[in-house]
Amino acid sequence: LSQVGLSNDQIPKVIASCPALLGCSVEENFKSKALWLSQVGLSSDQLAKVIARHPSLLGYSVEENLKPKALWLSQVGLSNDQIPKVIASKPQLFGYSLQEKMKPTVQWLLDIGVGQDKIAKAIANKPSLLGYSLQEKMKPTARWLSDIGMDDLQIASAISKHPSLLGYSLEQNIMPTVQALLDQGLTQPQITTMLVSFPPLLGYSSKRLMHRMSILSAQGLLSSSLCGAMALTDAKFAARFQYNESCGAHVY
What we know:
Oligomer: single chain
Radius of gyration: 23 Å
Mean pLDDT: 86
Structural class: mainly alpha
Shape: elongated
Helix content: 55-70%
Largest sheet: 2 strands, antiparallel
Distance between the termini: 56 Å
């Protein structure tokens, strides 16, 4: 393990999280996996981080697991530069079933209208997308968005722009956000337009959303400025939309 870059502090933690490593062959498991990952394009630092984060990777078969999944990522549209970055950021994907999880997820995205190039970009930027539950999270989210008035093209567009929205909790993020917008007097068509243009709106905390909506609403800027305002840092938001008590006017 030290030869693949793990520190003396990391080694006992790795073994504690995956004791089965002690029974693995150095040549067949450690060295062969490290060699393959290096050939795919991982740097020495990336290799060490991958093993530290997901030591079970060393127990996977190169021929039956690692290679087929890397090949599939290439077929989906990821470049030779993107694949090692995906592996480095989400090594857990090698623990997902290719036939039961990864392929069905991509097929579903294609079926709802997300383009192949958008899917490749989404996986490259957010590889955890392949780990979301299709039945318990992704499909229910898409159905709920449809129920509030978004059509298939709008849902596909929102997912293409911000695939992380498929990982948001319906109960804790999406539904409360839309209800808060309705409570502020926005119509469903207005909300749909917002979500298509700025789908990250669904992921902000309730505290941040309510605070900024109250300020924008008081200035009559809610529908026109909310999306842009939510993306601002606290300092920039305050500077642009703060209330100037000395002159009794809003500055924006």
